[in-house]
Amino acid sequence: YLAGQPFAFVWGLEAIGAWPPIRESHVEMDGAWALYEAWVLLQEGEIDAALVYGFGKSSPGSLRDVLALQLDPYYLAPLWIDSISLAALQARALLDAGAITEQDMAQVAVRSRRDAKSNPNAQIAHDDTTEQILGEPYISSPLRRSDCAPISDGAAAVVLAAGDAARAARGIDHRVEAHYPGVRDLTTSPSTTRAAHASGVADGTIDVAEILAPFTHQELILRDALGLAEPSGTKINPSGGALAANPMMAAGLIRIGEAATRIMNGEADRAVAHATSGPCLQQNLVAVLEGE
């Protein structure tokens, strides 16, 4: 669907160079879920090491339309409701409920693109003001271009070994909500809250959180769901997050890698990484990482 190439995972495996693999498994979604699978196998002692990778090439087609194919095949997919329009409905619900303002959304965009200036892998990194962003035209009200993640081509890879995984990944869990957006409260993310509780987010201070939020208003939802709403003292998306670069199938794995990098660099002792899949934050994964 993304690259227009059948069995693209075969070419990805050859590009990685792990050939022939002793054991190969593909999860057909963001690499963060592949990391979860590898982590479980490590915990069970079935493997000693794993190479986890994710890649996506979204530029050849229209990503917002391709993602309509993940909707309910009987009622919603035939309407071709694109991902930005769905996110706009979610943002409008938040605004109408008085939970956020458009200025709050603009401030997320300003901070993300500014912080991305220190990230050499960022696709978009610059200084903007809240006023500049609020002056942009809507692309799907109430979303402006700066409220949305860019179209990105990219890849990420993480190597897990039994000892490293046992020490660093203190907890990881993922939960899913109803497939049909109409039966959900789109202003909250209960699956994120449940995953955060199961992975132990509240068991200690969180120094850094890398959150996969393709839209500004979704970061505000996720911060609340993770218990990291202001003033939490947690540094949110110091890499710039998905608003700086958002390669499909790899962006969630990148969040885990960015959180781990902050710990390895001594910038954090305890970090949270988050990944999401599906329309309007339908499925969410939360991982807690700690240094030694």
Instruction: Enumerate the strands of the largest sheet in spatial order, edge to edge or round the barrel.
Output: 5-9-8-6-7
CATH architecture identity: 3-Layer(aba) Sandwich
Might you state the CATH topology name? Peroxisomal Thiolase, Chain A, domain 1
The computed structural class is alpha/beta
Overall mean confidence score, pLDDT: 92
Compute the number of helices.
10
Structural features:
Peroxisomal Thiolase, Chain A, domain 1; 292 residues; 34% helix; alpha/beta; two-stranded antiparallel sheet
Topology:
Blueprint: H1 8-16, H2 31-43, E1 49-57, H3 63-66, H4 83-96, H5 102-115, H6 130-134, E2 138-140, E3 143-144, E4 153-161, H7 162-168, E5 169-176, H8 190-199, E6 208-210, H9 216-225, E7 235-236, H10 251-264, E8 270-277, E9 283-290
Parallel strand pairs: 6-7, 6-8
Antiparallel strand pairs: 1-4, 2-3, 5-9, 8-9
